[in-house]
Each structure stands twice: as structure tokens, then as C-alpha cells.
Amino acid sequence: MSDLITQLIRAERLLLETTLQSCSPFEGRDRARVLHADVLMETTKAIPKEPADGAAFPVEYQRLALSAETLQAIDQAFAGGSTFRDKPVTAEHICQAREFVQHHYGFDVSTVPVKLSQVPQTESVEGFFMSCGIAEGAVFLPSVFCSPVELIVHELGHAMHTTIRRQQRPTDYRFWIDWNSIGPEMCAYHAQFSYLIKHGTKEQFYVALGALLTSVSQLLCLLTLSAKLSKEEFQEYAPVQAYQNTVAWKALLDMYGGMHPTHPNSKQNIAVAVSGFTRGIGLALALKLIGEPQGLVAFMKEDTVAKPILLKLNEAFPHHKDLGYLDDINEVISQISARMLA
Ligand SMILES: [Zn+2]
């Protein structure tokens, strides 16, 4: 095993142990990072900047946009409200999620620990997966959530992605890290949406697409800011008609305000938006690849930061000729929606 991988595992183990021991892991994640700052710094410095090719994606992905029809459907799903009632997360939910992943991808996640924690009611949090070595990572979840199995399946998707690629290349650090969220989120959302198509409702599907709406709005703000448009010009430029009368319109304006150079947290908010946008690309690609679990596993095996995303997708899905663009996302969404229960 290379020195760098030994170092990575050491840092991951320290973080995971500290987080597992913490009584508030959702806040403790940052505390764990502060506690082990020296080890993390040492590890980060040791990771070569090259190859960084895995960070590149087709410029066409910047045309990711939602149609008025999709926006209205997301808005209506959020207005429906029935999806949002919190329920306690149970052992049965965890079992169902593990069975789904095992059955759909043929990959055993029965030994991935799932830890439940109380989260302050004021916070709306989802879960997270903390990677560690090849197969020592753990899933952290709030003890109550509106759609428990769906959430667990998403996090187990991250666990599966990490384990499969690291198992395949245990000595090559390029299979152990990521430069952005496209690959990891594509795998996690693929699992989540595959689950929803089988066991969820249309309303749950559109609520889950709220994450895509956030990413698309972040992209819109980034493009507008890079074009140096004023707030008035932005309102003209933004697809007002598509967003009209949706809750998303106000959220979009707030987001833009937070990223504008005049805002004190502008830099931080822009960094969040860049990462949010790559998450959205992963989500959109997952939707295009629904129904192809084995292709996804093939992708995970070869997911290295040494190659750009499109090259890896073309290798894992050689018959797909449409993975270099996301303009067709609204058609993909309505096709999936038509297959789902009302
Ligand atoms: Zn995720």
C-alpha cells in the first residue's frame, strides 16, 4: 500500500472515530476536523495536484435548465406537504434500504454501519456518509426524517461507490479521492431515484428534484455574476416566466443576493454554489442513466480523478451517445414521472 493511501486511511480513521464518539455528529463533523487539523493538513499537502483531469466536464453541462412544466411540478409537490411529515427512522427502514441496494446493484452493504443521532429540531438536515479505508465507512442519519428509506439508500449509494472503486484499486490514490461531486452524487442519486421509481410516488420524486432545482438556480446565479449583470438585468435574464409564481423565484433572488460581491459572505456562498452545481450535474446524469445499474457499477470500478467525467461515462455506457449534454433533462424527467405511481 502506498504511503499516501496509508496517510489517507489514518486521517479518515481519526475523523470517523471522533465522529462516531461524538454525541452530536452533525455538528461534530467540523469539530473533528479542527481536532485533527494537523493530520488533515499533512494528508492534503501529500495529495499531488496532478492529475486533475477528473475535474473537467463538458461546457454543454452549463445549459442545464428546468422547463416551466418541471418547475411547476416541483413547486406543487412541495406545496402538497404530505411528504414532509417526519417519522422515526427504524431498523426496518435500514433493512429495506440495504436490501434494495443489494438487490438492485448486486452489491452487499449489509455491514455498512448506520448511526442514528438526535438533531436539533430547528435544523433540517439530511444524512451523510463518512468514508474510511476500503469498507470501514459509516452512514450518519438524523433519528427522524420524512423519507427514511430513500435517504438511507442515497447514503448507501455513496458507501457502495467508495468501496467498489477503492477495492478495485487499493494502491492507486486516484481512485480514493474526488475533485468535485459529479461522480459521487451521480452514484448516490442513481440509487435514490431507482428506489423511488420502484417504491415511491410522483410527489416524492418531484420533492427529490428540489435538489436539482437548487443546483440549477445556483448555476443561473453563477453565470449571471460572471457576466457581471446588475440585479435588474438579472431579473430580465433569468427565466422569469418559468419561475413565475413559484416559491423558487424568491429563493433564486435571495441566492443571487447572497452571492453578489456586495454581500459579506459572497465568496463562501459562491464556493457553495460551485459545489452545488456539480452535485446537480451528478443528479441529472443519474436520471439519464436510470435502468442501467450494471453500467453504474462499471463506472464505479473505473472512477479515477485521472480522467474527465465524459470519458469515464463513455467507457461505462458505450451505447449511450447522449451523455455529453443535459439539455434533454426535462424530457427525461417527464418520462420517468410517467412511469411512477400518482
Ligand atoms: Zn449525496
Description:
This protein has 342 residues and is mainly α. It has one domain. 60% of the residues lie in helices and 5% in strands. It contains 16 helices and five strands. The strands form two sheets. A three-stranded mixed sheet has the order 2-4-3. A two-stranded antiparallel ribbon has the order 1-5. The longest helix has 23 residues, at 266-288. The protein is globular and about 55 Å long. The model has no long low-confidence stretch (mean pLDDT 91). Bound molecules: zinc ion. Residues 154, 158, 185, 188 line the site of zinc ion.
List descriptors:
342 residues, three-stranded mixed beta sheet, binds zinc ion
| Low-confidence runs of at least 5 consecutive residues | none
Output the structural class: mainly alpha
Largest beta sheet: what is the strand line-up? 2-4-3
- Total helical elements: 16
Largest sheet: 3 strands, mixed
Q: Using the CA coordinates, give the radius of gyration.
A: 20 Å
Give the overall silhouette. Answer: globular
What order do the SSEs take from the amino end to the carboxyl end, as H and E?
Answer: HHHHEHEEEEHHHHHHHHHHH
The unique ligands bound to this protein are: zinc ion
Mean of residue pLDDT values: 91
Percentage of residues in helical conformation: 55-70%
For the secondary structure, the number of strands is: 5
* First-to-last CA distance: 51 Å
- Total number of distinct structural domains: 1
Q: How much beta, percentage-wise?
A: under 5%
